[in-house]
């Protein structure tokens, strides 16, 4: 049973390992982890982001949770409480990932389903989720969770287009 939960002090090794694995795919697991001098500082930064405190320029309040299955971190989600121009164009309200060794087990769909419940509890009625057009797994997850394609946007020359989905 997958459960989304906040980071704990004993998650450091798992999150740092996940960071290294996902970096090989060009993806960041621990958002802003590289900016923290210590794990305790990172946990404070995550808590500050959730509360909307001490946000860097161009950042919005967000909730960062790990996906836990039987005590093992299998993925993560970031739920942005509001959208700025960048998030409206490319990032959306929800960003998630599943570690490669745990893919194709339905975890991404469950992460997004639970994230939608949390987003709604934050007062977000229409949730924007984006993905690259060359990621059929994410496209399937988003559509399974009720995503309706709104638009396709080219991010940068030579990079995949971004698909923008709204979930009501």
Secondary structure elements and pairings:
Elements: E1 2-5, H1 12-23, H2 39-51, E2 62-69, E3 72-80, H3 85-91, E4 94-98, H4 107-121, E5 127-132, H5 136-144, E6 148-154, E7 161-167
Antiparallel strand pairs: 1-2, 2-3, 3-4, 5-7, 6-7
Describe this structure in words.
By secondary structure, the chain is α+β, with helices and mostly antiparallel strands. The strands form two sheets. The chain has a four-stranded antiparallel sheet with strand order 1-2-3-4, with helices on both faces. Strands 5-7-6 form a three-stranded antiparallel sheet, with helices on both faces. β6 and β7 form a beta hairpin. The two termini are 25 Å apart.
Summarize the structure.
This protein is an alpha+beta fold and 168 residues long. It is 33% helix and 27% strand.
Q: How many individual β-strands?
A: 7
Q: Share of helix among residues?
A: 25-40%
Intertermini distance: 25 Å
Mean pLDDT: 95
Strand order, sheet with most strands: 1-2-3-4
Query: Strand share of the residues?
Result: 25-35%
Descriptive key words:
single chain, about 170 residues, alpha+beta, four-stranded antiparallel β-sheet
């Amino acid at each position: 049973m997958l459960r989304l939960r906040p980071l704990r002090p004993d998650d450091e090794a798992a999150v740092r390992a996940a960071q290294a694995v996902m970096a090989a795919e060009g993806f960041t697991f621990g958002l802003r982890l590289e900016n923290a001098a210590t794990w305790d500082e990172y946990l404070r930064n995550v808590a500050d982001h959730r509360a909307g405190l001490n946000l860097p320029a161009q950042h919005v309040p967000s909730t960062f949770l790990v996906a836990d299955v039987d005590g093992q971190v299998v993925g993560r989600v970031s739920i942005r409480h509001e959208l700025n121009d960048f998030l409206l164009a490319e990032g959306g309200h929800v960003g998630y990932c599943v570690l490669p060794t745990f893919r194709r087990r339905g975890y991404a769909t469950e992460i997004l389903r639970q994230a939608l419940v949390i987003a709604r509890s934050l007062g977000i009625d229409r949730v924007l989720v984006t993905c690259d057009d060359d990621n059929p797994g994410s496209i399937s997850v988003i559509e399974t969770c009720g995503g309706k394609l709104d638009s396709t946007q080219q991010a940068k020359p030579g990079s995949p287009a971004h698909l923008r989905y709204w979930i009501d």
